[in-house]
Amino acid sequence: MRVAIFLLGGLLLFSVPARAQWLAGSTGPQSGPGHISTSQHESDAWQVGIGYQYNRDNLVGTPFNTHGINLSLTHYFTSWFGVDAQLGAGLTGSTGMTTNPPNSDVKSLLVVAGPKVVYRNRSRFEPWVHVQIGLDHYRFVENGGFLGSNSALAFPLGGGVDTYLTPHLAIRAEADYVMSRFFSSSQRSFQAVGGFVLGF
Fold this sequence. Notes:
Layout: H1 2-24, E1 46-57, E2 64-76, E3 81-94, E4 105-118, E5 125-131, E6 133-141, E7 149-166, E8 169-182, E9 185-199
Antiparallel strand pairs: 1-2, 1-9, 2-3, 3-4, 4-5, 4-6, 5-7, 6-7, 7-8, 8-9
């Protein structure tokens, strides 16, 4: 988690001068707050994202939290439709006192991909939605070995908003509803991601 926070802080510091230069070069009636003078990011065929990931997981009867890093890659086939893939790693987490055995350390890995639809309206704010399918894996570190390592299909459904600082750099806020099936039962979990996106 410290690595993710360090990377996000570094990207934020480097983006401030770039944003100031971009705003200074913008002219015309649409160069004020909330507008961009060009739609250069709309022609970006690829996006790479990195961010902090928080999960509220519900696998063992009592919800628990994991924290980690999220990486994403998106390819756009048109200005509004693409396919994105995500790799989310929950690096730290604990099941708490209510499980048996209690306080099991948890690590997770989510690898998913699917279609993405974006609404582009020539402003700094770009909302989008996606539906994904892939593999969800959890490893529980405990004395009894009751939970162990488990994998299952996962179906994230959600969306977010990219707020552009420059024509090719944006801040991302994302929320997903993640359905999975561990231990022969269905689970519904929540995932939130905050980070940066680079288009090219």
